[in-house]
Amino acid sequence: RFGIDSNVASSTLSHVRIFKSGQGLSVNYSMSTLDDSEFFDIHGDALVIFESSILNAQNLSIHDIQKGVSVFNGSVFTVDGMQIKKITSESDALEIFTGSVVTITNGIIKESDATCVNLHSGGKITLADSIVEKCNVGIAENAGIGPIRITLNHTKIRDNAIGMTMIAGVLTSTNSGIFQNESGFENYGNQSIQVENVWWGSASGPSHATNASGTGNTISGDVDFSPWLTVNPFPEDEPSDDDPPPPLVPSAPLYTQYQSPHPSLAETASWANMTYANGQNGSCGTTIAGCGCAL
């Protein structure tokens, strides 16, 4: 049974913690709000929204669960600030069914051996300022009745085995990236799919048979990927050229800037006291150390 079953016309839940439960929260036939709540150590679904329900939420932490969030039957789920991570079974982190609409801002969805975000039968999702990572598939479209729409706004799809798979849906991307995946995008359908205005991890664009110079994430199938972003919209991910050099060693032996263990300090001292230039250089003394000679 669910820890909380919300089937009233409206409800407000805040600072809820559900854990060590067979199920988490069920929202049905309801318009509800859910704030500052946590679901973990749950053996079934953490959160289920169905029967045309509306759930507005913020600051949700869902982790260490067997199944993540499922949205059914034309329901609407809007959330600002949500983490779904560490799915302990081969289940999806977020599933969207039958015309349901999900909008996530400032979200992190990750760590599933299945799919981070799975859409079926007319499901729609908008991801803004979010990250989808470390899943077998980042975002997947499955066949069904009704068009599937995926909207990405400044969102990263990265570090997955496959970044995205689609069949016939519509993808709209603004300042978003599909990069650092083993495979970036795979079209499983028999018609061309537009995947434009995406950062593929390289200014040269994705690696594809029609883009011989592309060194970014790979694309397979019939995909219209031009134009692509040639400037990384996530500069914080770029390696910095301003990393400080190793610290100088003030009194390094061998008269170099960096101290070396070879030869030993004793051997260095013996060498430094040896006669320099057969003792003929009177301007700096007779020893190697006195004349500041470098190896």
Using the alpha-carbon principal axes, give the shape: elongated
Largest sheet: 19 strands, parallel
Class by alpha and beta content: mainly beta
How many alpha or pi helices?
A: 2
Question: What distinguishing features does this structure have?
Answer:
295 residues, mainly beta, 19-stranded parallel β-sheet, two-stranded parallel sheet, 4% helix, elongated
Word description of this protein:
- With 295 residues, this protein is mainly beta.
- Helices cover 4% and strands 49% of the residues.
- The model is unreliable at 249-258 (pLDDT under 50).
Write the layout of secondary structure elements.
Blueprint: E1 2-6, E2 10-14, E3 17-21, E4 23-28, E5 31-50, E6 54-71, E7 76-87, E8 94-96, E9 101-119, E10 124-128, E11 131-141, E12 149-153, E13 156-158, E14 162-166, E15 170-174, E16 176-179, E17 183-187, E18 193-194, E19 198-199, E20 219-220, E21 223-224, H1 265-272, H2 288-291
At a glance:
The protein has two helices and 21 strands. With about 300 residues, the chain is mainly beta.
